[in-house]
Amino acid sequence: METVAPFKEVIEEIKDAGGDALRFCFQCGLCDTVCPWNRVRQFSIRKIIREATFGLTEIDGEDIWRCTTCGRCPQQCPRGVKQIAVGVALRRVAAEYEVFPASVRSARTARASLISEGNPLQGERNKRADWATGLGVKTFTEGMDALYFVGCYLSYDPRMKKVATATANILKRAGVEFGILGAKESCCGESIRKTGSEKVFKSLARENIKTFVDNGVKKIIVSSPHCYHTFKNEYPEFMVNFEVVHISQYLFELINSGRLELTKAYEKKVTYHDPCYLGRHNEIYDQPRDLLKKIPGLEMVEMADSRKESLCCGGGGGRIWMDTPMEERFSDIRLKQAVEVGAAELVTACPYCITNFEESRLNLEYDEVIAIKDITEIIQEVL
């Protein structure tokens, strides 16, 4: 098997990432049984781990880029093998040598945009706050209740701007004194780190941390589970700790404290999709559901593969920027699961999930079959 990077270098990267846990893998294959890729094509993370142990992974192939970092395999592993860390380490070697298959080249474009504009969508930095025009959203100043960290997709993507607007309207309705950073905000860096671009991640992280500290930020409200995970679990690597709250958690608190009242009925059957980085990676399962259950008239139903077994939408691990053949999209399977339980709306709380589900809704011609909503869009309707 041909390996592009020097054998010694691959071994060192793998040891740093996987540590002693790699030695414990006894190739039971339980990781492969839960990997969502095996619902659409043959794929073996077990094989990659085995090859990585000996530094034999072929880093110029497609396989090391398939992982969505959904978290199912480490959750299933009886031996504590760090499959995600090993996969990201292999990607770091590939990124260092600029070895990318055709399907990954769009991720290189995202990386270039992150370096130049602070976002992966080629949006102009000075237009990052344009979504808030006319909404009366203030610039964050020290002493406010919280910073609302909008994130890249909610700042630039036309569909996701609706979620940012809904969030701002709800916070204002509840009397929360919040602000945004606008052009001072940069991507959290979570996804680019998972594609192996460690230097870009560190640059973005340091830039955000400096901005947070300089502006007196203590509490951060986020819409994206990827931002939540990074600020809460990865930024502490830089010796800082901020209070980080996902919007679904915060809205639940606002309702329970009486600051937000749901007055209108929502007579629809909905099902909730657990985003990987909110559910499996951070064990936030109940608050989004409890929030939906507080809505008058709403009927909640569960899909197959829910909570810790939730089916990944396919967008994590930087794959939101990569090309996935139509017949290999996990999001198609997820929409079919939602339709099977009779849901009129598939509700979630992640920009990647919504982006992929909206694309699948178009591909499956489900325009009149099911709607895709962020949890804040529903809350906004019932105030």
Structural overview:
The chain contains 17 helices and 8 strands. The chain is an alpha/beta fold. The strands form 2 sheets. The protein has a 4-stranded parallel beta sheet with strand order 2-1-3-4, with helices on both faces. It has a 4-stranded parallel beta sheet with strand order 6-5-7-8, with helices on both faces. The longest helix has 17 residues, at 198-214. The radius of gyration is 21 Å and the shape is globular.
Write down the overall mean pLDDT. 92
In the sheet with the most strands, the strands line up as 2-1-3-4
Give the amount of beta strand, in percent: 5-15%
Report the helical percentage: 40-55%
Which spans have pLDDT < 50 for at least 5 consecutive residues? 1-7
**Terminal CA distance:** 60 Å
Radius of gyration: 21 Å
Essential attributes:
about 375 residues, alpha/beta, globular, disordered N terminus
Structure summary:
By secondary structure, the chain is α/β, with parallel strands linked by helices. It contains 17 helices and 8 strands. It is 43% helix and 8% strand.
